[in-house]
């Protein structure tokens, strides 16, 4: 082999080795950086009918990621997803499989959207208690069949009770559509009013609860009061005849008092005026009266002590 041939062979081997090394480096870089802009999350669903790899992952209906793997695992399905790293999800986020229609591909919706607080970490796991799947057609058919059997001739309508109920309801609602509509409308307005005043309503309920608690705490006192009130009522009932006579006498007495006042109102007015003057004089002289009351006992004591009973002097 000539030197030129050996050089060419070595050159080709070097080029091939460089290409292989380049591919290895590119693969390593791709493997390292492929998840640099996404977060990964795993969710477990009771089923995943119609959900496939490549289906979208959404937040508020906007595609934010992709389903990477759908793996059946006995009585549940493991779904691995990735989503944009810039999207924040609440730590307690739920994952729901959504079926826009019967034939279209399904997607995973994260709900509720993030509004604040802790966020979902990368490589987080969402358990079955926080996932949901749509109602399947077969399940819907089974439910309808069960309802029809329950309400059918072998169930609630076995004796025709349901038929009679529907007939009676139809007769009662006949020609009452406007009245029923007005009633529902008023109920709606009433609900709106209650909603607008829910703070006052809740405060009222709270106060009623406090009053009820107060009554409960004072149950013994309330029972005693009720017993005493019952005793008073019984006493008044037993003495009603005496009270009747007393009221009659009191009525005649008050009539006489009224006549006396009417006949002597001028004198009474004069006496009251004079009494007012007397009381005013007493008020004006209250200092002197106070002094007399303080000194009088001492003076009387001196008089008694000054008298000698044996000598009479």
Automatic annotation (TrEMBL):
<keyword id="KW-1133">Transmembrane helix</keyword>
<dbReference type="Pfam" id="PF02470">
    <property type="entry name" value="MlaD"/>
</dbReference>
<dbReference type="InterPro" id="IPR052336">
    <property type="entry name" value="MlaD_Phospholipid_Transporter"/>
</dbReference>
<feature type="domain" description="Mce/MlaD">
    <location>
        <begin position="39"/>
        <end position="113"/>
    </location>
</feature>
<keyword id="KW-0472">Membrane</keyword>
<dbReference type="InterPro" id="IPR024516">
    <property type="entry name" value="Mce_C"/>
</dbReference>
<protein>
    <submittedName>
        <fullName>MCE family protein</fullName>
    </submittedName>
</protein>
<keyword id="KW-0812">Transmembrane</keyword>
<feature type="domain" description="Mammalian cell entry C-terminal">
    <location>
        <begin position="119"/>
        <end position="296"/>
    </location>
</feature>
<dbReference type="InterPro" id="IPR003399">
    <property type="entry name" value="Mce/MlaD"/>
</dbReference>
<dbReference type="Pfam" id="PF11887">
    <property type="entry name" value="Mce4_CUP1"/>
</dbReference>
<dbReference type="InterPro" id="IPR005693">
    <property type="entry name" value="Mce"/>
</dbReference>
<feature type="transmembrane region" description="Helical">
    <location>
        <begin position="12"/>
        <end position="33"/>
    </location>
</feature>
